[in-house]
Fold each of these.
Amino acid sequence: MFKPAGIDFIGIAEEEAVTPLDYIADNLIRLEFNLVNGVAERRMYVVKARGRRAGYFLEFDILSGKGVVFLDDLPRPQPKGVWERRVDALSGGVGAIREGNIYLVVGRGATPLLARAAAELSREGLRVLYRVFSRDATAVSAMVEKFGGRAVVQRVEPQPHSYITHIKGFYDNLAEINPDVVISEGVDVEFLMYGSKARDINLYELGELRRLGIAAFINVDRDWGLRHLSDVVILLRRGEAVIYSPNGRRTCRYEQDPAPRLTC
């Protein structure tokens, strides 16, 4: 009756199984709510759109108070040009720091090394966003300044909500701060809070940083499967640094005096 009259019809059903309505409808949208490790996930799936190719499928996230979120439409800074910088703290072991490279630092006690690297990179004219998950942001900011540099230091506190909210907040920071370098210290907290979804978070974030040409330093106590996403892996243990890079494996000293640095 509605079709010949040109009247649009929107039907809402609670059915989870396939019904005759699925075949009659021109467009079919499914809404889901799940709790995974205490994290709420709300999603919208477009599983049918008449006129589109067979098997057409789209997935979107729904955030409380914001509705459907399209990650591809979130504001982002312009991609960086080609750049590289050498810094005393790291370049002795990993060479020049380059745009879009992912540096995974595995081990505790990396804060002084990363803070000095942040200071040196900022003195080279690069904007640094330093994210801390398990330390006091004020103390880290003071340490960067002690080494003669400046960084935007933020404390990140994952909460048991949709991990897409976490990703959106990260993209909002990129658009606002427009960093050349992002340092994330203590990322283990994401894996403890979000479980397996933390891998999706880092996959999104690291992929975006690489695409934008932003160098990233990720510090963890264990690699959590992030090694294969990284260009350079630095394993810190007992004053030693084992480095894996496209140039192969090398062992360096992690010196603290007179200032933290890798010496090879």
Amino acid sequence: MAEISIEQIRNFRLGAHHLDKEYKKTDMEKLTGACGMQNTPPGAWETALFNRIPDCSLTEMEYLLYKEKTLLQTWSLRGIPVVFPALESDVFLSALIPQEDEPWIYTAGITLALDFLQMGFHELFEILQQVIPQLDHCTVISKTSLDQNLAEWMLPLLPEKKRALWTQPSMYGSPDKQTVGGAVVSFLLRPCALKGLVVFGGRQGTSPVFTSYKNWTGYSFTPNKDACKKLMRKYLHCYGPATPNHFAAWLGCSGKQARRMWKTVSEETEPVMVFGKKTYILSSDKERLLSPDSLQRELLLLGGHDPFLDQRDRAVLQPDKTLQKQIWRFVSNPGAVLYRGEIIGIWTGKKKNKGMEIKITLWNTVPEKQKLQNLAEEYTVFRNTNLSGFDIILTPGSM
């Protein structure tokens, strides 16, 4: 059984995530479809795509998502907004649908509301599926309005004795803006998205607009029986060597669902050793994994939620667990300074009246500090502003 080094893994994943060189605009669908691009916080997918196609402007990205609709955004893995090619909707949506007694992704928190209502998950989900097709003929501005509109549409179909409870203030926070019914809908929108019943449409000001898949794309959502295999191949190509537990954490699904999906490609995988433990890769990736390519780009400023940073074996990116806590936080991850696949520091950017100020903290020195400033300037230009402040801090252990 082959023993894979950390350097080989970093090099392989850089290539799989298309961070090894600058790519062309014609590669847009291939890049966004590698493993999807998270868009929370809003704009995360734009930064991720910029790091792969630096000459693609914000206007061009928005055109592909909102006008040409080559790309699509809706709730997907881990229940978060993800941007992916519209033609691969089956892979990023229906592949995630659970079977038998597997729980739906993201819905564990709904229990509090179900207990309050004394109603079952499937009962409420069935009612929501009866009314949500109304989105085929309209759009709704803002997530808050979407939750409440759908809750109101469901109200007449609820048992009469449950309706007063349905309209009570939410127990999840912001009771002045959300009802219990609105909270239930918020959880159930994730399963609805995986069934192609709701997507993000355009934007109105700073607010997202929601509608149905059919109303937005102009055609009906069509699941594919091979969707699970396709998703597994994407995952293993981008994040291999990996284990089913790594996959479950990345997808946000139960261990049972992860193991079921993993088995769909079991004949296409083989074991390798990493850090003394058995992991798996696609057999078709073995040659590339064992033969690292030269990198045309060694230094990068990745956004805090770039797909590359979503590796579950975080020691590959940064072995020091203390430093890991600075990279992956509960909220508001900073950007990552990446050198040859290793995170050597973090960065933050703050918009000011005169432009954007970027602050970089390094744990390891890099050969070309000027290159970091150049990257910072390129990013601010992409964000239609200028670099008004730039600072590099070397921590004691990096001198």
